[in-house]
Amino acid sequence: MNIFIPLVVGVLIGYLFKNKLRFSMDKPMSIALLLLIFFMGVEAGRVEIDAFKLLIYSLVFASFTILGSLFVALVGVRK
Fold it and tell me: One Pfam family this chain carries (predicted)?
């Protein structure tokens, strides 16, 4: 489903009824966010992965990110 269609419809409804709607959207948004996180967790739990391989890839990626940041910081200090 295209995410921009509901977004644009929501913006239009909010713009057209901005002075007429006087209720808080905090609770519905919190409930929707919690449901989204729950269903993302359910979907993530269904995926079968090799956790050790993923750990190694994550550590390598994090190390390269840290080393790259340090390198850029050192090059920036010298100039």
Answer: Lys_export
